[in-house]
Amino acid sequence: MPTIRNLWPYPVNFELTQLERQASRLGHLPGYCCVCGRATVFQIDTDLRERVPCLRCGSVNRQRQLATVLLEYAHTIAAPRRPLSIGDIAKETIIWNAETTRALHRRLSEHLGSNYLSSEFISADLSSGTVVDGVLHVDMQHTHFGDDSLDFILSSDVLEHVPNPILAFEESYRILKYGGCHIFTAPFYEHRFTNERRAVVNAEGQLTHLRRPWYHGDPIHEEGALVYNVFAPEVMCQLEHMGFEARLCRLRAPFRGMLGWNGIVMVARKVAEPSHKRDGVFPDDTDWVGEDASPGSGMALA
Asked: Does residue 86 sit within a domain?
């Protein structure tokens, strides 16, 4: 029998690399932190995705993954010959981060000043833009930001707590400038194609649990934040359908403090001509405009 290799579900190797195993035994690993921009030591424990703090700034693995992708799009150095850090982002860059705590938030706030916006979801009873005890409330499904006003949106394990992430993505498209990105992490399934809906809210605001309730820790709400959705490759199709250029990344670089197999970061980039709109068979053909596919024309809609 010939060997059959699955492209998806992705054949993930859940084992640690030899370097990661050695670092776990030692409890630390030297390296470079892209958040604070310094040589450092990363403290290693069993929770690689949520921990591995930089002993200089306190940033953890997931924050450095987000920052690494942000820097690829936002840095201002023409030909980098050294590791990049948050300090390499132009100060006029406007970034909204959907959290108000921890190391990445602190570093972006220090570097960008008033061009950095941070928020939390405080209560469904509040309108986006309301400030409570110095904290800006924003509902990602209905923000208060103007059209084409932001360069980047960051959300780190936030969108799974949004009842209707499609509305949130549509808002991201509205408020991003062309060329801007929503860069985000969220729980992501690698054993299936479709997203999983765990809970829904109807038009009257009634909550229905479709699966056993799952809560994540939340700095604002003591009871935690309910997980409504777990994403899968379907979310990439949804982003393309909205007009985004979608990208699914996996980051694993131990000496940059990114360890473990599940370093997944997603990007939704707002561009005038997304790459998926180009003809995949005749990519250089710009003259052919298509035939009439209106109702009654006999042409099937793709």
From this structure: yes
- The boundaries of the domain holding residue 140 are 18-271
Average pLDDT rounded to a whole number, residues 53-60: 98
Residue 278 forms part of a structural domain: no
Beta strand pairing call for 176-185 and 264-270 = antiparallel
CATH number, domain containing residue 73: 3.40.50.150
For residue 168, being part of any structural domain is answered with yes
pLDDT digits (tens, 9 = 90+) for 114-169: 999 999 999 999 999 999 999 999 999 999 999 999 999 999 999 999 999 999 99
Whether the upstream peptide bond of residue 163 has omega within 30° of 0, thus cis, is no
In a domain, 297, yes or no: no
Inter-residue contact 53 to 59 (CB < 8 Å): yes
The confidence score (pLDDT) of residue 302 equals 43
| H-only helix segments in the chain | 18-26, 61-74, 102-112, 165-175, 234-242
Count of the separate structural domains present in the chain: 1
DSSP 215-280: EE--SS-TT-EE--EEB-THHHHHHHHHTEEEEEEE--BGGGTB-SS--EEEEEEE-SS-GGGS-S
Write down the residue that tokens 């030909």 correspond to: 79
Identify residue 212 by its one-letter amino acid code.
R
**Whether the predicted model's global pTM rises above the 0.85 cut:** yes
> Which pair of tokens denotes residue 117?
């916006």
Cα separation, 44 vs 259, whole angstroms: 9
* Secondary structure (DSSP) of 138-161: -BTTB--PPTT-EEEEEEES-GGG
